[in-house]
Each structure stands twice: as structure tokens, then as C-alpha cells.
Specification:
alpha/beta; 5-stranded parallel sheet
């Protein structure tokens, strides 16, 4: 008999209830009790959604991030928050978001010191972000199981067949950073006894199985990290609960034998992209060990070909019997909650999709077919097969004109007319910017009024003329505020844009859009990835009119703002019937057309954002070059058809760049802006050994924190940058776009940023900006 379980469920709620509850609490509009009540209600609903499973996850729900949850469970709090009194949840949010000394939350709690937020970075190769654990050589751990035990008690009261979910000790250390250059693996000896205590507490609560996530087993591990796995699980071998060691996001490859031989009761591997490892794994496993196969894709939204999965699983079941478990490939955190909420999505495309609840239904059908025979679910299997075939043969998926254009692509499309040194002189003569020029990344606050206007347009209450007038008024305000601040290069603020990917996808053939297809990016930040279902074509210009209007309001340079092809790809739910690279080249051709139209309209600075560039990297470095080759080429095709005088910018945020800095240089953007403030310019370490040839704007204003950065702090950050990058090639800018902040937060921060640039111009010696 095959058993079913799930690795995790989306925590935000089908209508983003968690997002709104968090933001209300942070604004002081609701109490902790009210926030906790929303969390409890969401968990209750999520467990009901998983009622058909043999085991449901408990502890996968988080108010911000599961890695931060684990840090608090292990008692690993940064020193800067240990002295604060009050609610533990407030301390949790201090680490997650930071807290300014002037905030009402701090002052009402009797705390008068500001707190820097923890560093945030991408969760493996997804668009989810986690708070990086912080370590020093003296880090100590102390168990605090209260959060997990509370959720277990709730689950028990609802008769949930519970399987607690935690991050494993080796992955937890791997995810973190040391603040003193010490060896974080040296902390394993101190960490393991806390895990032993945790397992004892869970056993005392009647827990049988615990899901222990160790996804780093799908990465390339050196001998020291491999030994750490052997040491850790040998020490945990006698724990009083059964451990389901869980891997996801890729193949185990050279770690397959290591994983198979670890002394745990069960092992979960992905069987969507790593199915070819299954039979070798079965040969290696001891006879008593449970094997869980992730047969439903937890990262994409296409229906599973259930008959094909059964063709593969049935022989496996005959071999394993009751030792076979099935599940999604990873946590369903990365997909929307419920397709049934979608009432306006094109019905044909809707029939091809499965969100979290539908994926659990697919799992139920598979389990019935395995346990009772296919005839029991014949109708479900026939309906599924019809949908699979309809999508495969749909003319809406295939565009001959797009395929013909793609066949003509070659590397010459990605070449600029002249090298950067020549371009820089021409651009400096045309733009006449000061040293340390100031700019922003693109978006300004998306106010409630802007969102309401967009809703009224969609509902038909507002016609397009009235909507255009309202957006032009917002653009005019944005331009006026920037001129008053004294910024050097302006943006139009993107008031008309709902999302940096969805906005463009709505104007391209080959995309579809959901109403409620939200997924969590971090904290309360949710995104609604477009659905890239077919070949891409740009019917008409997408941004030119808005930028022309903004430029008409000022004599200062106005940036054209576009999203680059790799980010369009990585932040969409992408079709799985052709290589991702092919879809990316199609996007590159569409964005290239928009770039050339902007240049033709007189726009002299065009920013083409690639925040998700690193996100698409395979988890194994041995596979990086293939990805980087086509990713770099796609950006260059999109960007590099312009004249020397046109300055191309790009933006990247919240990723480690040190190991791909050469590929970033290969993009050949004239200027790049990156996140560095939250990491205290640590990311600029990449430039110690690599001479970056073009201009760079290291972010000095952490827009994901409510803190207002001080002028002197930003000056100090830029001085650190000037130690590595010639001052003549430095820009001054925030880390990221400002759409999630309020105007009363943005204005003082930008005022300090402009003042910081002025101080830098006065205090750092003059050199020729054009030559660097």
C-alpha cells in the first residue's frame, strides 16, 4: 500500500490573508492576538485541505520564513536583538525586517535602539527569500520548541495525522554565514545535542515521523560537508522518532550513495527531474527503509500526466510494497493555493493547470490507482489524459512566426557597436552627469489610490481615458518629487504597472494571467507569476508612451524601464514542453524590439532589470556554464542593438554574485545596480579579484526594511565601495524598487541619499568620469 504525504503547504492563504494580517500588525492596526488568530485559522484550513493524506506537515506554517523559524527554535538569535524585552514575536520581526529607533513599535515597547535586519537571500534556485542565519566562533544553541509544539497541539486537537517539518542540521549550517570568518561546520558538535533534545520533545508529544529537510544533498558537496552528514546522522541514529530525510530541487548524483546509507528511517527524493536515479537508489537502500518519491511537480502549475507516472510507479510499488510513499517533489510553498478561485482565467488554459489543492487531488488519484487499481479512478485518469493531449496539440501554444524569427538568431545580435571605454565617453558627453550620480531603481510607492484605480479599470468602473489621466497625474507627482530631491537621473515611477513581470506579460502573446495565483516571495511580499504557456510575440510597443510623457515633464534624463528576458522567464510559471532556453530567446527578441522603440523615441538611458539572473543557475556548478551561456546571450540580444550613445543599465538584487561576476561583466551593461546595503557591502568582495570594467551602483538604502538610512551611514558604505571600484564609475542608489514602501518612508531616505552623494563629491578627489 502506497502512503501519501506532503512536504509543505502555501502559508499565505488563498486570498493572501496572511499578508494583510502581517501588514496590519506591523502598522499597529491589530494586536498580536489577532495576528495569531489569523495564523491559527489558516493552519486549520490548510490541514483540512490535506485531510486525505496519510501524513500532513506541521511546522511548515511561518509568519515570515521557515529558516528564521529554525534559528529561533535553535536559540540562534543575533546578539543585536537578545537584549530586547517584550513579545518574542516582535524580536522575530526585528530580525526579519529590522526596526528603526524612531518607530512607534520600538518606543511603545520601551526600546529606543534601532535594529538592522538580517541578511536576506534566495532559497536555492527559487524566487523565495530566506533570512540568513548568523554565526560566530562563539555561537551557542538552546532549544525553544514552543512554536512547533503549539502547532502540534493545534493539529492534535483537529485530529491531524501530523508530521513535523524542520530544517536539518547540516543544511541549516550550510545556509548561514559566519560574521568572523570562522568555520561554521565547527558548530555542528554544539548543534546536534539541540536536535536530539528537539526529537525527544516531539516523541513525548506522540510524534512518530519527523520530516528533516536536507536539500543541500542535491548540490556539489566537498568531503568535509559529506562527512558532516555522516557524523550528524550517526549521532542522531538513536533518536526516539523516525526521520524522513527530505531532498528536493534536483538530483543527488554523487551524493546518492551517501544519502541512501545514512541511518534514517526514510528518504525522499525528487522523481520529477531525477527519476532516473530511482532504480539505483532502490539497489542501495536497506530492506527496511521507506522511500518517498516526489512525483507531483511542486514548483510548476501544469497538470501531471498521471498515466505516465503510474506507468513508472507501478513496478516500483511491486518492489517496495508498503515502503513506498508518494508526495509532491518539494513544498507546495512555490505554487498558488487553489485553481478553483480562478473565475476569469481562459477556460482552455485553466484546464491544463493544477495549483496546490489540485496537486493534492492528483496525489490522491495516484494513491487510489496504486492501492486499488486504475479502474477505481478511470474517469479521473481519462479526464487528465484529455487535458494533457489538448495542451500538447493546441495551436495557441505554437506560433510559426516566432519559431521562424528564433531560427535566425545568432550571437551577432548581442554585440554593441563599440567597447565600453568608447561608449562611456560618448555617453558622458551626451548626459553630462555629475560624479556619484543619483538615481532610483525604477518603482515608487504603489499607493492604495493607485491600486484602487487599477481595480476600477479592471472592473469596468473606469474607462481607459480616465485611467490614463490618473496614472499621468501619479507620474507627474513622481517626477516633481524627484526633481525636488535633486536626483540626477529620474524614473517615471511605474504607477501603471502591477508587477514587473506581469505588466509585460499582459502585453505579450503566449502569456496568461491568474486572479489569485499568488506565491510568497518573502514575509508579506507576494507575487503573481504570469503563466508562460506558448510561443512569445510582442504585438506593439509596451512602455514608450508612458516614458515619453514622463520625459516631457523634465529636462533631466528619464530612464526607460524594462524587465529582462531571464527574469521574465525565472519569475513566470514556464511551459515544460520545450527547453527553458528556447522560451528565453523568444522573450529576448520581444524585449529587443521594445528597447529599439525606446531608443527611437529619444530615450537615452534604458534599464533592463535582471534581478533573477542568478536564480536560474543550476544548483550544481558543473552545470552552470550551459545556463550562463544562453542567459548572457539572451540579455545581450535584448539590450545591445542600440547606438553607443544610449546607456544600458541593469539591476540585480538579493543574490550572491561573487562566483558569477565574470558572466555579469559579459552582459556588457554600461551600468549595473546591485543590493549591498544589507550585507554591508560584502557582495563587493567579488571585485577584489575581478576588475569590473563598467559602472556600478552598489545599493545604499535597504528598501526592504522600514529603517531610514542615515546620511553618514550611506557615505560610509560608498567609501567602502570606492576602495574596490574607481569612484568615477560609482552610482548612488537604493537596493531595489520602492513600490512596497510609503512616501513618508521614501522621501527622507532619498533626501539623505542625495545629501550623501553631495558629501562624496566634495570629499573624494575629482577624476574624469568618462574614462574612469
Amino acid at each position: 500500500m502506497a502512503y501519501t504525504h506532503n512536504l509543505g503547504f502555501p502559508r499565505i492563504g488563498a486570498k493572501r490573508q496572511l499578508k494583510f494580517a502581517l501588514e496590519s500588525y506591523w502598522k499597529g492596526q491589530s494586536s498580536q492576538d489577532e495576528l495569531e488568530a489569523v495564523g491559527a485559522e489558516l493552519r486549520r484550513h490548510h490541514w483540512q485541505d490535506q485531510a486525505t493524506l496519510d501524513l500532513a506537515p506541521v511546522g511548515d506554517f511561518s509568519f515570515y520564513d521557515q529558516v528564521l523559524d529554525m534559528s529561533f527554535t535553535l536559540g540562534n538569535l543575533p546578539d543585536r536583538v537578545r537584549a530586547f524585552s517584550g513579545y518574542a514575536l516582535d524580536n522575530y520581526f526585528r530580525v526579519a525586517r529590522g526596526r528603526s529607533a524612531e518607530s512607534a513599535e520600538e518606543q511603545h515597547g520601551g526600546n529606543w535602539g534601532g535594529v538592522a535586519a538580517g541578511e536576506m537571500t534566495k532559497w536555492f534556485d527559487t524566487n523565495y527569500h530566506y533570512i540568513v542565519p548568523e554565526f560566530t566562533i562563539s555561537t551557542q544553541f538552546a532549544l525553544d520548541p514552543s512554536r512547533l509544539l503549539k502547532q502540534l497541539n493545534e493539529a492534535a486537537a483537529q485530529r491531524v495525522r501530523a508530521k513535523p517539518v524542520i530544517i536539518g542540521p547540516v543544511t541549516y549550517l550550510w545556509l548561514g554565514k559566519t560574521k568572523d570568518s570562522s568555520n561554521k561546520l565547527a558548530l555542528l558538535e554544539r548543534l546536534l545535542p539541540v536536535y536530539e533534545q528537539l526529537f525527544e520533545r516531539l516523541a513525548a508529544e506522540g510524534v512518530d515521523w519527523v520530516q528533516v529537510d536536507e536539500p543541500i544533498l542535491v548540490t556539489e558537496l566537498d568531503a568535509e560537508w559529506q562527512r558532516a552528514f555522516e557524523l550528524a546522522y550517526r549521532q542522531l541514529d538513536n533518536c526516539p522518532v523516525k526521520l524522513m530525510l527530505t531532498t528536493y530541487f534536483g538530483k543527488l548524483q554523487e551524493n546518492l550513495e551517501l544519502a541512501a546509507k545514512l541511518p534514517v528511517a526514510g528518504l525522499h527524493i525528487e522523481a520529477v527531474n531525477a527519476r532516473d536515479e530511482a532504480h539505483r537508489l532502490l539497489d542501495l537502500l536497506p530492506d527496511q527503509k521507506v522511500v518517498s518519491f516526489g512525483v507531483i511537480n511542486g514548483r510548476n502549475i501544469w497538470k501531471t500526466d498521471l498515466s505516465a507516472v503510474l506507468d513508472w510507479l507501478e513496478p516500483v510499488q511491486r518492489r517496495l510494497g508498503e515502503r513506498l510513499w508518494i508526495a509532491p517533489s518539494c513544498s507546495l510553498l512555490h505554487v498558488p493555493v487553489d485553481l478553483d478561485s480562478e473565475q476569469t482565467l481562459d477556460s482552455e488554459i485553466r484546464s491544463w493547470l493544477a495549483f496546490a489543492r489540485q496537486k493534492l487531488e492528483e496525489l490522491r488519484v495516484l494513491a487510489l490507482a496504486l492501492n486499488e487499481g486504475r479502474t477505481v479512478v478511470r474517469a479521473e485518469l481519462e479526464a487528465n489524459q484529455a487535458a494533457i493531449e489538448a495542451r500538447r496539440n493546441s495551436p495557441r501554444v505554437h506560433n510559426p512566426a516566432t519559431k521562424a524569427a528564433l531560427a535566425k538568431v545568432d550571437a551577432r545580435l548581442g554585440e554593441r557597436q563599440s567597447p565600453y571605454a568608447v561608449r562611456a565617453g560618448k555617453q558622458a558627453a551626451l548626459l553630462k552627469l555629475p560624479r556619484f550620480p543619483t538615481t532610483t531603481i525604477g518603482s515608487f510607492p504603489q499607493t492604495a489610490e493607485i491600486r484602487q484605480t487599477r481595480r476600477r479599470l479592471k472592473s469596468g468602473e473606469l474607462d481607459h481615458a480616465a485611467y490614463k489621466a490618473a496614472m499621468e497625474a501619479e507620474i507627474a507627482r513622481c517626477v516633481s518629487e524627484q526633481e525636488a530631491l535633486g536626483l540626477d537621473v529620474l524614473v517615471h515611477g511605474e504607477a501603471e504597472r502591477n508587477d514587473m513581470v506581469e505588466y509585460f506579460g499582459e502585453q505579450l502573446e503566449g502569456y496568461a494571467f491568474s486572479q489569485f495565483g499568488w506565491v510568497q516571495s518573502y514575509g508579506s511580499r507576494c507575487v503573481k507569476p504570469p503563466i508562460l504557456f506558448g510561443d512569445i510575440k510582442r504585438p506593439k510597443a509596451m512602455t514608450v508612451d508612458w516614458i515619453n510623457y514622463a520625459q516631457s515633464l523634465t529636462t533631466k534624463p528619464m530612464k526607460g524601464m524594462l524587465t529582462a528576458p531571464v527574469t521574465m522567464l525565472n519569475w513566470s510559471f514556464v511551459r515544460d514542453d520545450q527547453p527553458r532556453s528556447m522560451s528565453c530567446y523568444q522573450l529576448a527578441l520581444a524585449i529587443r524590439e521594445e528597447v529599439l522603440d525606446l531608443e527611437k523615441a529619444g530615450v537615452r538611458i534604458i534599464q533592463i532589470d535582471e534581478p533573477a539572473f542568478r536564480e536560474g543557475l543550476p544548483l550544481r556548478k558543473s552545470q552552470w556554464q550551459d545556463y550562463l551561456k544562453w542567459a548572457v546571450e539572451c540579455f545581450r540580444i535584448a539590450a545591445n542593438g542600440v547606438a553607443d550613445e544610449t546607456q544600458i543599465h541593469t539591476h540585480m538584487c538579493y543574490s550572491e554574485f561573487n562566483d558569477i561576476i565574470a558572466s555579469i561583466a559579459d552582459l556588457d551593461a554600461d551600468a549595473i545596480t546591485i543590493e549591498t546595503s544589507r550585507s554591508d557591502m560584502e557582495l563587493l568582495g567579488a571585485f577584489d579579484d575581478f576588475s569590473y570594467p563598467n559602472e556600478i551602483g552598489p545599493g545604499v538604502y535597504d528598501i526592504h526594511s522600514p529603517n531610514t538610512p542615515a546620511q553618514q551611514h550611506m557615505v560610509e558604505l560608498m567609501r567602502k565601495a570606492a576602495e574596490r571600484i574607481p569612484a568615477e564609475r560609482l552610482w548612488v542608489n537604493p537596493d531595489c524598487g520602492l513600490k512596497t514602501r510609503q512616501w513618508d518612508e521614501v522621501m527622507p531616505a532619498l533626501r539623505n541619499m542625495v545629501a550623501a552623494a553631495g558629501e562624496l563629491r566634495r570629499s573624494i578627489p575629482i577624476a574624469d568620469r568618462a574614462t574612469g
